[in-house]
């Protein structure tokens, strides 16, 4: 079994959309326009490919995005710099094989050289104790709760400190930037003309 974690490509989008919308109640449905937004704007959008098949994906955004998710906006109101995991989906045939931990290790490596905090939420209605336990054992702590819309589910808002970030900031980000290594590079994606360079975590917004 050959596994590759790679940036999403445009020709993957139909498979990603189908995978998302058959994932069950714990994953909010997407339409093609919403998925296109992630393709064009998400800072992290990677798929797991196994023997040529899309086995899962993870989407994450940094602070400062124009994104309407109530949970993303909650973190924006409480923290100046973070990476927010919007969703992770694993195909049924590949669940319970450790792909979730592979993705979380990968997104942590992406986040810890850019921001001090990795964030996400888990649904409490319906509650999935396997998901809650997974996040707890991976170092996430609950920092709040909220209901998604008046009749939406209650969610637990989670955050994980990334202690390596302080070293990266002082050693590299404040002294010219990260080394030009492929694994440290931003993902290539379509960008709108008004896209602004990312600020250092902790800098004030203009």
From TrEMBL:
Origin species: Fulvimonas soli
GO MF: acyltransferase activity, transferring groups other than amino-acyl groups
Domain N-acetyltransferase span(s) in chain numbering: 3-163
Span list, region Disordered: 183-206
Protein name, as recorded: N-acetyltransferase domain-containing protein
Stored Gene3D superfamilies: 3.40.630.30
Classification via InterPro entries: Acyl_CoA_acyltransferase, GNAT_dom
CDD domains: NAT_SF
Biased composition (Basic and acidic residues): 184-206
């Amino acid at each position: 079994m050959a596994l590759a974690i790679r940036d999403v490509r445009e020709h993957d989008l139909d498979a990603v959309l189908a995978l998302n919308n058959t994932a069950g109640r714990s994953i909010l449905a997407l339409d093609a326009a919403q998925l296109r937004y992630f393709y064009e704007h998400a800072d992290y959008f990677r798929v797991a490919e196994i023997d040529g098949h899309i086995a899962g994906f993870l989407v994450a955004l940094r602070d400062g995005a124009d994104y309407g998710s109530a949970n993303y906006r909650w973190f924006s109101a409480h923290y100046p710099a973070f990476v927010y995991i919007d969703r992770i989906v694993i195909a049924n045939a590949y669940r319970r094989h450790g792909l979730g931990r592979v993705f979380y290790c990968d997104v942590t490596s992406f986040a810890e050289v850019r921001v001090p905090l990795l964030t996400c939420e888990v649904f409490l209605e319906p509650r999935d104790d396997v998901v809650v336990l997974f996040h707890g054992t991976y170092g996430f702590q609950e920092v709040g709760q909220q209901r998604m819309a008046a009749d939406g589910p209650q969610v637990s808002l989670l955050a994980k400190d990334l202690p390596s970030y302080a070293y990266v900031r002082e050693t590299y980000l404040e002294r010219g930037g990260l080394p030009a290594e492929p694994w440290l590079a931003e993902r290539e994606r379509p960008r709108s003309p008004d896209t602004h360079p990312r600020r250092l975590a902790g800098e004030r917004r203009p």
